[in-house]
Amino acid sequence: MNIAILSRNKNLYSTRRLIEAAEKRGHNVVLLDHMKCVLVIEAGRPHIYFNGKEVKDINAVIPRIGASATFYGSAVVRQFEMMKIFTAVESQALVRSRDKLRSLQILARAGLGIPKTGFASSPKDKDIDNVIQSVGGAPCVVKLLEGTQGIGVILADNQKAAKSVLEAFMKLKANMLVQEFIKEAGGADLRVFVVDGQVVGSMKRQAKAGEFRSNLHRGGSAKVITLTPEERATAIKAAKKLGLGIAGVDLLQSKRGPLVMEVNSSPGLEGIEGATGIDIAGKIIEYVERNEFNKPGE
Prior knowledge:
Blueprint: E1 2-6, H1 13-24, E2 28-32, E3 37-40, E4 47-50, E5 53-54, E6 60-63, H2 70-82, E7 86-87, H3 91-98, H4 100-109, E8 117-119, H5 125-134, E9 140-144, E10 153-156, H6 159-171, E11 176-180, E12 188-195, E13 198-206, E14 221-224, H7 229-241, E15 246-254, E16 257-264, H8 270-276, H9 280-290
Helix pairs in contact: 1-9, 2-3, 5-6
């Protein structure tokens, strides 16, 4: 099978591991920088050029699209779908998961637990006060909608600080969410890796001292964890509701059960493989193999 991996950097751990796992199983791998792909949209014959050559004979695509490249990257994935080539992450699911507000609305509508979340665009004092109080008041968490890896996430300890952060972001015309602070989580969260509707690995990430963000990129630590049945079911349902065949579901352990904090459509492999010792890249390739002949609709 010929597998195309959409990635901007062949040296990234996740990209290297996917190439290794595919080649180990006898597949040919083509690495395509999605931002350098040229799309030709033509009735009856959609096609793609890369480095001046038409991309042909691809059986499946594994997108590794960064947040900053969502718009063009999803268009490239959509083009492969129009060419009736299986994509491990579908374009619509990619776009849906990257919109934090929309994804939370979808998860809440499905009955999944999420941190209480407020959203407002008005800079009026009354509206700012209302959105803070709607999530239980301070302390609360303010998140930029476009942030990744813990960037643009601020813990406001009191009402005054929360109001100041919101006012500053609003002056910059930045879109943000306000969420309740789950104190009992203790600066930790669960990363649950879901592939093709099954949990293939899970870890608990703990923030370093003095930090509330548990991202490994910000110095957090990780260890393998055994999920409760409820946590497992929540992660699987979250990935399914967003339409993701591959997902990193981030859960908070709260007094009222697991809460979905975020669902990542291009989850990194280094942390989860390092913590669990599981060949997650191999699980992804097996998923692609199972779906080689499952052609998407137009």
